[in-house]
Amino acid sequence: MFKTIRSLFSSKPERALPAVPAGQRIYAVGDIHGRLDLLVSLAEAIEQDNKARGPADTTVILLGDLVDRGPDSAGVIKAVRMWSQVRQMRFIMGNHEEMFLESFGDLETLRPFLKYGGRETLLSYPIDPLAYSAAELGEVQELMFDAVPKEDLDFLRSFEDSIVVGDYLFVHAGIQPNVPLGDQRVSHLRWIREPFLSHGGDHGYIVVHGHSIMAEAEVLANRIGIDTGAYDSGKLTALGLEGTDRWLIETRDDDGAISTVTRSAS
After folding, report:
1. CA 114 – CA 76 distance, rounded (Å)
2. What does the domain layout of the chain look like in residue ranges?
3. Of 44, 104, 146, 173, whose CB count within 10 A is highest?
């Protein structure tokens, strides 16, 4: 009997499961990288899933890197702007949006931007590929100014650095461990990999992020990574959250045939 009583006093209380506030439903979408085809299918799947789950205050959060590498960044920007007219949405700026925007005023940023997928972004706008190939770096910048609408740039500039909903923190890349959210550098939020990815301690929130590609969504005790490398793997992933429930919606391109799978993220 005394052993039982002692165990009651020594046992630790169960930690509450992470949750979003009652009445809210969140869908977070990983790095799209110009894959308009996958985005369209995933958006349709999210809307169907949301309808099937019943009424809620639903918000879709895009985790950044809408642009670069894939074939239709301009189409992605147009599509999400249209989607946001009928669905409550919030947008986080990724490192690729950051480079895209800075490239308009800085040739030293334009060079790596083009190297890491910016060429594909620019050619998704009305820029002649032959003119692009023949252009010097400064001339490429001039082509950008002529081809990319101001509305697209203003839209990208409106993106947020981080979003908190309940027990979840949404960022593009991650956070610096053991640093309060208010003291985080924007560069860490958009670019960090280590020591964030290998850190096993509590961040104060469950951090939902993209930026670091994984073959499958990575659901850990302190973070959930949902960048599944859409531009290369053909798989775009969304995380659904409601109360303490978590689920994944994955859109896959198998040799041109796009399918969608929904599964638990527990």
Report:
1. 18
2. 19-164+231-264
3. 173
**pLDDT digit string (tens) for 141-159?**
999 999 999 999 999 999 9
pLDDT band at 266 (very low <50, low <70, confident <90, very high): confident
Rounded Cα distance between 163 and 243, Å, is 17
For residue 195, say if its preceding peptide bond is cis, omega within 30 degrees of 0.
yes
Q: What is the pLDDT of residues 213-229, one digit of tens each?
A: 999 999 999 999 999 99
- Angle among Cα 226, 230, 236 to the nearest 5 degrees reads 55
CATH classification for the domain delimited by 19-164+231-264, as one of 3.40.390, 3.60.21, 3.30.70, 3.30.2320:
3.60.21
Q: DSSP of 109-145, one letter per residue? A: HHHHHIIIIIHHHHHTSS--HHHHHH--HHHHHHHHH
Confidence of residue 16 (pLDDT cuts 50, 70, 90): confident
Question: Which long-range contacts does 188-194 make (Cβ < 8 Å, 24+ apart)?
Answer: 189/161, 189/162, 190/64, 190/93, 190/94, 190/95, 190/98, 190/161, 191/95
Length of the chain: 266
Coil/strand/helix, residue 154: helix
Give the count of beta carbons closer than 10 Å to the beta carbon of residue 29.
27
Q: Is 162 helix (H, G, I), strand (E, B) or coil?
A: coil
Alpha helices by DSSP H, the chain: 2-10, 36-52, 73-83, 95-103, 107-113, 119-123, 129-134, 137-147, 150-157, 186-191, 230-233
Name beta bridge partners: 246: 241
